[in-house]
Design brief:
By secondary structure, this protein is an alpha+beta fold. The protein has 5 helices and 12 strands. The strands form 2 sheets. A 7-stranded mixed β-sheet has the order 1-2-3-7-6-5-4, with helices on both faces. Strands 11-10-9-8-12 form a 5-stranded antiparallel β-sheet, with no helix packed on it. Helix 3 crosses helix 4.
């Protein structure tokens, strides 16, 4: 397992307040939440070589096998509402794509809202969790990023859609540093939405027909783009335009 010094050596600037490396943990997001409750500063980072209870969106687990992926969480203390904190995930997605492309000779795309794809396979998931104070304000946010770095054998339930960067696990310190560099560059300009043009450009759903659930009903629509709030713009078979702010979508037609 690499060390905090390995990551710091790859950083071009002092971005992280503290970098904590763990050989194994239940969840780096949970670790950072505990540190946040103890008053840890913004920029505190936890990276693990393995997670036994990695977390994804919608209560799903995130498969985090030993020493084949980068499992990293960052503590943030933005002056945002809980609703606006959703932009952190959107901000992180193009940052991950740019970092990945800096190490791999390939192009990375974003599947709305939080997945990074290469060659039609998911190589990274992003999960932002908010910590709400007793008075209802946003106390902190935890940005979790899990990247499949080295080749591995995936479980049967995800083998048809999961992929990896196909690079050495030794590149993880450089990848972590690159993600932190690019993320904080966007994060500092979060109110300006500097990340949005790149997010739009990298959307793999634009122009495709997708299926999604709304009010208990399964619907299909063509994706026409990403709106100013990073919502998914779709047009249904009835010609009506809708803006989806959250949820799960599945591609059913590529054109």
């Amino acid at each position: 397992m690499f060390t905090a010094e390995d990551v710091k050596a790859a950083l071009k600037s002092e971005l992280a307040a503290d970098i904590i490396i763990k050989d194994i943990t239940a969840s780096t997001n949970l670790d950072v939440k505990e540190l946040a409750a103890k008053g840890a500063p913004e920029g505190t980072v936890v990276i693990a070589g393995e997670q036994t209870a990695g977390r994804g969106r919608l209560g799903r687990s995130f498969w985090s096998p030993r020493n084949t992926g980068l499992y990293m969480s960052v503590l943030l203390r933005p002056e945002l509402s809980a609703a606006d904190a959703l932009a952190i995930t959107t901000c992180a997605a193009p940052a991950v794509c740019e970092a990945v492309e800096g190490l791999c000779d390939t192009e990375a795309g974003i599947k709305w809202v939080n997945d990074i794809y290469i060659g039609g396979r998911k190589v990274c998931g992003i999960l932002t969790e908010s910590v709400i104070a007793a008075d209802g304000r946003l106390d902190s946010a935890v940005l979790g990023i899990g990247v499949n770095v080295a080749d591995t054998e995936f479980p049967a339930d995800i083998t048809d859609k999961a992929g990896s960067l196909h690079i050495s696990a030794d590149t993880r310190p450089r990848l972590a540093a690159a993600i932190l560099e690019r993320f904080f560059a966007y994060y500092r300009k979060l109110p300006e939405k500097a990340y949005l043009p790149e997010y739009r450009r990298r959307s793999i759903l634009t122009g495709k027909v997708v299926e999604y659930e709304q009010t208990g009903e399964l619907r299909s629509a063509k994706v026409t783009g990403i709106d100013d709030e990073a919502g998914l713009i779709v047009i249904g078979s009835d010609g009506r335009e809708q803006h989806l702010s959250s949820g799960e979508v599945r591609i059913i037609m590529k054109h």
